[in-house]
Amino acid sequence: MAAGSISSEKIDLLIYGPVRPILENGFSDHFVVHKAETRGDLERLTPAIREKIRGVAVTYHTVRADKESLSQLPKIEMVASFGVGYDHIDAKYAAEHNIIVTNTPDVLTEEVADVAMGLLISTLREFIKADRYVRSGLWQTQNYPLSVGSLRDRKVGIVGMGRIGQAIARRLDASLVPVVYHSRNPSKDVSYKHYPDLIEMAKAVDTLMVIVPGGASTNKMINAEVFKALGPRGVLVNVARGSVVDEPALVQALKSGTILAAGLDVFAAEPTVPDELKAMQNVVLLPHIGSASVVTRNAMDQLVVDNLKSWFSGKAPLTPVAETPFKGR
Ligand code: A2R
């Protein structure tokens, strides 16, 4: 195939997961687009169609491109995944089978950082409770009580100092809040104090903002020991993945006063949220909306399309993940 142009032979693509207009309309005449919203739909595609599919757009993190799905597509060259986290894609299996995996980093960084910052302030200053207070008419009788939480006296430990972690740190800088961070390796991009040990950092701060990838290496890393180290003024904000937090341990820590409060955009078994969390007044609960604005979700969809188009016109994938075997075209 000549570099820069899509071959005259049509390329079969699969949209795996929800279909949205940019995905539906993004592929030109050079592609034949098949659709499977669920694993069941994928299994119902005829063997003749599965045999032809060369690229897959995975359009939501609830659809898993695991070994079982990928092995049904013998001609597959690329999985273009929607979202920056790709713990729902078996990138290791893909690499072993020479399948390129791409994600959609950068285009959502500032949006997720905005949500993280908003969630922190809402949790500390009780915006959701205060809103209910106004609507209920209680303000007519007395002023809203002073919030125990405040950004003014906080020190934040960011767990994960990648693209989004750094964008959160910039917002905290602007708010004059001291920042330190934990990751496996110190980042060359920042001068904040690095803690190689998460517990040591949790002891040194009163607020944790979590923005690491999901997957085995971070599974339940925010656990009872971390909450104990964080202490009774402790606040947890999680905009990463639900799997990163030991959720029963979090419920226990909030109930017992081991920590003060939590702001959560992600949960262990979405969209199910434990009733115990829903009953608590010291938590703010969001339905995984970190990147969920029209402008940002459109940019993410477009990057999924652009990755597939780039590859099938003989160019390099735009945003391959770290595990991908791509060595340059
Ligand atoms: O550990 P390092 O040096 O690789 O630093 C990365 C850190 N990280 C971890 N920190 C501690 N323990 C781990 N097991 C671990 N694994 C990764 O998370 C790095 O500082 C950060 C990830 O940064 P980026 O790859 O630039 O990701 P980005 O765009 O900031 O998004 C983070 C996550 C996504 O994967 C989604 O799950 C979520 O935000 O929306």
From TrEMBL:
Instruction: Report the family membership.
Output: Belongs to the D-isomer specific 2-hydroxyacid dehydrogenase family.
Q: Which residues form the D-isomer specific 2-hydroxyacid dehydrogenase NAD-binding domain?
A: 117-290
Domain of life of the source: Bacteria
What name does UniProt use for this protein? 2-hydroxyacid dehydrogenase
UniProt-recorded Gene Ontology molecular function terms: glyoxylate reductase (NADPH) activity; hydroxypyruvate reductase [NAD(P)H] activity; NAD binding
Q: Where is the D-isomer specific 2-hydroxyacid dehydrogenase catalytic domain?
A: 19-321
**Keywords, in A-Z order:** NAD, NADP, Oxidoreductase
The answer to whether UniProt assigns keyword Oxidoreductase to this entry is yes
Q: Which InterPro entries match?
A: D-isomer_2-hydroxyacid_DH, D-isomer_2_OHA_DH_cat_dom, D-isomer_DH_CS1, D-isomer_DH_NAD-bd, NAD(P)-bd_dom_sf
What is the scientific name of the source organism?
Bradyrhizobium ottawaense
Q: Which PANTHER family match?
A: 2-HYDROXYACID DEHYDROGENASE YGL185C-RELATED, 2-HYDROXYACID DEHYDROGENASE-RELATED
Q: Which Pfam families match?
A: 2-Hacid_dh, 2-Hacid_dh_C
Do the record's keywords include NADP? yes
| Single GO cellular component term | cytosol
